[in-house]
Amino acid sequence: MAPVGLQLYSLREVVEESLERALDMTRAAGYDCVEWYGCPQVTQDPAGARAACEARGLVSYSMHVPEAWLRADALPDTLEALRALGVRYAVLPWSKADSAAACEETAALLAGAKAYLAPHGIEVGYHNHGHEFKALPDGRLPMDVIVRGSGALGEVDTCWALYGGVEPDAYIASLGAQTGPVHFKDINADYRTRSPEAIDVPVGGGILDFERIARTLARAGRLEAGLIVEQEAYAGDVQADIAASCAHIRALLARLGA
């Protein structure tokens, strides 16, 4: 069964007040697991964060890690923290990616982290925003330079991919086995006229065909890597939105028999 998780950045304002309440909301919305971000509760006490997660029947699944954690001199401490957290994936959530040199530097960083962490059962990935799909002067996509150049997994964010100018299912198909967990994030029909901070909506409430994306993942054998919801802005009730996203995903997985 494909894991369905919530990136806790979706509840960042709640996390600031109470991690436990954020985890309660996640479980009540129907999720199996969580993807962490670099909030103090995780960076300062990863074992405690994991325990709070597991006490609610959630799996501590993956983490968006700070870039500094992936530098060679930091990797021993990073491994210790990720082991304490119990995650399977360590994902770099952003890089400048504004030149070939910058992309190649990020690729080298990820390749080094991958080589160090893989023997310990932790896979390294990269999460896109929109700018990684804007071609460099030499014609290459920053996302390709970073992911294919490093051998790391691509955590494709479907909303940001479309915003950047590519069809997310087509890009996932091109990555194939190099696809990691995928961010199921929907996008408003009028996203081109909105600020980047206001383009996303609950899964099923926008224009992306997530059943088609899930079928693409199934063909690549990558549904098992996980489907992660992230919602960065809300027009309605937060709890209702994250629950609606989870319910939409579970319904489409049921149709696929996954």
Structure description:
Helices cover 43% and strands 14% of the residues. By secondary structure, the chain is of the alpha/beta class. This is Sugar phosphate isomerase/epimerase. Keywords: Isomerase.
Written as H for each helix and E for each strand, in order along the chain, the element string is EHHEHHEHEHEHEHHEEEHEH
Instruction: Enumerate how many helices there are, as a single number.
Output: 11
Helix content: 40-55%
Judged by helices, strands and strand pairing, the structural class is alpha/beta
Summarize the structure.
InterPro entries: IolE/XylAMocC-like (IPR050312), Xyl_isomerase-like_sf (IPR036237), Xyl_isomerase-like_TIM-brl (IPR013022). Residues 25-251 form the Xylose isomerase-like TIM barrel domain. It contains eleven helices and ten strands.
Which secondary structure elements does this structure contain, and how are they paired or packed?
Blueprint: E1 4-7, H1 12-17, H2 19-28, E2 33-36, H3 40-44, H4 46-54, E3 59-64, H5 75-85, E4 89-92, H6 100-117, E5 123-127, H7 142-150, E6 153-155, H8 158-164, H9 168-175, E7 182-184, E8 186-187, E9 200-201, H10 210-219, E10 227-229, H11 238-256
Parallel strand pairs: 1-2, 1-10, 2-3, 3-4, 4-5, 5-6, 7-10
Antiparallel strand pairs: 8-9
InterPro entries: IolE/XylAMocC-like, Xyl_isomerase-like_sf, Xyl_isomerase-like_TIM-brl
Domain Xylose isomerase-like TIM barrel: 25-251
GO molecular function: isomerase activity
